[in-house]
Amino acid sequence: CGFYLSCGYNSSGIMLSGGCGQQIAEWIVHGRPSLDMFAFDIRRFGRSYVGDSDWCRQRSHEAYAKNYSIVFPHDEPMAGRNLRTDPLHQELLNDGCVYQERHGWERPGWFMSNRVEGKVPKVLPYDYYGEYGNTAHDNYTYFDAVKQDYKFGLPDCFETIMAECQACRTAGALFNMSYFGKFLLTGKDARKAADWLFSNNVGLEGKVSYTCMLNKDGGTESDLTVATVPPDVQCALPDLAGGDDSFYIACGGAVATYVQQHIQTVLLDEQFDAQLVDVSSQLGMLSLQGPISQKVLQSCTDIDLSQPDCTTYGRHFLMDLGDGATKVWALRMSYVGEFGYELHIPVDSLQSVYRRVMAAGKHRGLRNAGYRAIDFLSAEQGYHHWHSDLRTTDTPHEAGLGFLCARNKSYLGKTVMEEQRRSGTTRQRICLVMDDSCELVLHGNEAILCNGKVVSYVRRAGVSQASRQWLAFGYIDKAAGEKVTDASLASKTFEIEHMGTRTPAQAYCRSPFFKQA
Prior knowledge:
Helix content: 25-40%
Distance between the termini: 45 Å
Number of strands: 20
Strand order of the largest sheet: 16-15-19-20-14-18-17
Mean pLDDT: 94
Low-confidence stretches: none
Strand content: 15-25%
Shape: globular
Number of helices: 16
Structural class: alpha+beta
Radius of gyration: 23 Å
């Protein structure tokens, strides 16, 4: 039972009614749709902003005003902005940050390197594009920066983004990821709930676990990180004080509501005596990445960061910044393929920690970087991005994430995973590297051809900072039990069709640029 919504199609109801009607019928009867419906799912919105009348009014107007506009890959809304910001918002803006809006949050997109002194790309109040008696903004620096991306070729900001990538690979980059969804799973049955919710073994002492959450059909509802909260962290960071068997969950901010609702639904269905607390606004998150990251962080603390608990990937530890008051929970994690740390910080201390770290690293080459750089760097590594190349209809075994499926416990979706482990899958995620230079731009949904026939489409694309070649990820069909290898892929001719032109590509089982972080 439940409450189902099928409305708000913005004059597209007749066009979408057949497919959406079928899917919502399956949802009601079988408990979930057979297709990936996240783009239509009400859980892609958050309560913090859909309950704001100004946001609803502005975004509704812009949605109608741009209904028949060309959809450029990196367009950003001008309406409903600056609703959720963190303490670093103005500081990063002063450094030329061009923000993106995700889930109501303003998050760093990229940093202007050639801005005019005194002019910052500030998002101004919505001007309704000069209609309804409003005056359109003149000399709107932010809008002008966004319009650089109003093309399907390389945007004007491409080299700036690549410079951020290079800094991360050769020196250091500091990413403000405070918009991430952060949750605390607590209660009498918290450990039972965590074991059932997450496909990987979580709750290992001193360790952060990368894991999937699955549905009953084995499809991936999310990929995220989970860590138990040790007593010293609970004492130092009161927002994470949940008693014994407390689990800290971090996920992409754009899917925070979706993840939250999935977990709460499972808790209810299984009648676990556990609670999920949203601490997203109470904690900030900085990601310090790159070859200099350990030296930079070491200069900020008296803790010996060369010890195994501080260097081993997937470990976490509590540290102070030498003043005896500011506590930081450091997780040895990376989504960009470099040695680095995620720093989880009480939001009141976020600005002081940022300034301390930046002061320690700037002379070493540390610079601010944004999510456009993260997209390229993570693609180069072959890391997954939920709802691009990892969706509710993709299983971990199909996506190359079978190692995240534990065999020593029960979890939601395990029956399907064990069957695929025994019999094999009929689909597999592959990586294609374009032969041409990066002048040919991929955005996703381009056709993938094998031996002259269309066999799939691009789910996700990015540029390798090392070679300046485009990488693309997609799924190809195969016979159950068939073993796909780099050698078997090399025996076939792959192409990607872009703007009517077919370009050769080399196929691999995983990114050839992957390196252990």
